[in-house]
Fold this sequence. Notes:
The protein has 57 residues and is mostly beta strands. It has strands spanning 2-7, 13-18, 43-44, 51-52. The two termini are 25 Å apart. The model has no long low-confidence stretch (mean pLDDT 88).
Amino acid sequence: MEMDILKLDNNDIQIRTKIVRLEFRNPAPILSDLQDRSKELITICSSCKKVKINEDK
Length: 57
Ligand SMILES: [Zn+2]
């Protein structure tokens, strides 16, 4: 993905993004709507799928 951030005259910014390449990824079962879940939230990187397991990492 490419992203341009432009400063506008009124001090707003304009963000433009463009997808330049798509890759197929196998589904991650942990993200399936069919999984039983607790109410806890987890943080997963959308690019590399690393899961945040504590506040430091
Ligand atoms: Zn990542």
